[in-house]
Amino acid sequence: MASRIFRLFVPSSAAAFKTVSLSQTAAFHTCPVRSLRYGWWAYVLGERTTPRLKENSKIFCIDGNIASGKGALAQKLANRLGMLYMPEPDVHYVDKMTKEKVPLDSAYNGNCSLEKFYLDPKASDGNSYRLQSWMYLMRLLQYSDAVEHLLTTGQGVILERSPFSDMVFLEAMFNQGYIRKQCVDHYNEIKDISICEFWAPHLVIYVDSPAEEVQKKLKATGKPYLQNISLSYLKSIETAYKKTFLPKISEEAEVLAYDTTQVQDIEKIAEDIEYLKFDKGPWLEQDDVTFHHMRILVEDKQQVANMTCIPRYIPEVTIGAHEFDNSYYSFRSLPGKQYAEGYNEDAGDKGIWLK
């Protein structure tokens, strides 16, 4: 459902969520929407990626439990290494990319709630799995943004968590009885056909914060929905990281691990990174041709989203035709969603309108 809902609000072949699908009428339009995109002709005319790649033209991912200090480390390290910092996406990541003035209703953002998950993780309406599947899509879209930025500018990117580590939360949810086995199978099927299209990050930095310490931090925030997160759930996340994710990702990426005290020493971490050989992983096998194909993929956000859409009946994420239709017209009725950018309704200009 995540991709189906996404398709309602982001037109096909959207470049950085800005290109719109247009239908031309007989009237003239004075403000046509145009978006310059990288494409086949750019490559034919000599545009190449490898000349702009430098020493720090890499993707780093900071991983760890909830409230383990990932964001602070990612921000400081990005400043130290001259890389772009991308904070962890939330359920409104698409709203931010489309520059919405205010976040849209959850009905247009996966129909899920993080607060509800923490307050009632076993909710009978399937919120937990809708949240998990939607957040995987958000992280996949953000990772595609990171790859696009790297290949386009040559500047490295540091992400706070990535789609590659999303399975630790799925595993923890299942172990705690928050989601069904059918949801796990559905998620794994989606991930098998989507994450394989992307290259793993060059480096994963794991912040090792004990579950008991994480729980204390969450209670100290004062946010009501964070007060009752179970210790067993936090321990399940920690176990999944150490026993499942880190051993697997280490086959393709460099891995560094630090406790919550060690992550305060940014200079030491930067020095450790300098000593890494970065002699494994899919990035070593790429050339200008494969970089070209990856750039074509990651700039098309609808194509990225389509990877997460598998026609399987899962009650938690499946919607009917009438509900889909209602969502579409409800979205188009929102202010600014009926016509393309540049349309002047007051002037009676009806030259271009959204499909």
Automatic annotation (TrEMBL):
Pfam families: dNK (PF01712). The keyword Flavoprotein applies. One of its GO terms (biological process) is mitochondrial electron transport, NADH to ubiquinone. Keywords: Electron transport, FAD, Flavoprotein, Mitochondrion, Phosphoprotein, Respiratory chain, Transit peptide, Transport. CDD domains: NDUO42 (cd02030). Residues 60-269 form the Deoxynucleoside kinase domain. Its cofactor is FAD. It comes from the Eukaryota. One of its GO terms (cellular component) is mitochondrial matrix. InterPro entries: Deoxyribonucleoside_kinase, DNK_dom, NDUFA10, P-loop_NTPase. It is found in: Mitochondrion matrix. The keyword Flavoprotein applies. SUPFAM superfamilies: P-loop containing nucleoside triphosphate hydrolases (SSF52540). Complex I is composed of 45 different subunits. This a component of the hydrophobic protein fraction. Accessory subunit of the mitochondrial membrane respiratory chain NADH dehydrogenase (Complex I), that is believed not to be involved in catalysis. Complex I functions in the transfer of electrons from NADH to the respiratory chain. The immediate electron acceptor for the enzyme is believed to be ubiquinone. Belongs to the complex I NDUFA10 subunit family. This is NADH dehydrogenase [ubiquinone] 1 alpha subcomplex subunit 10, mitochondrial.
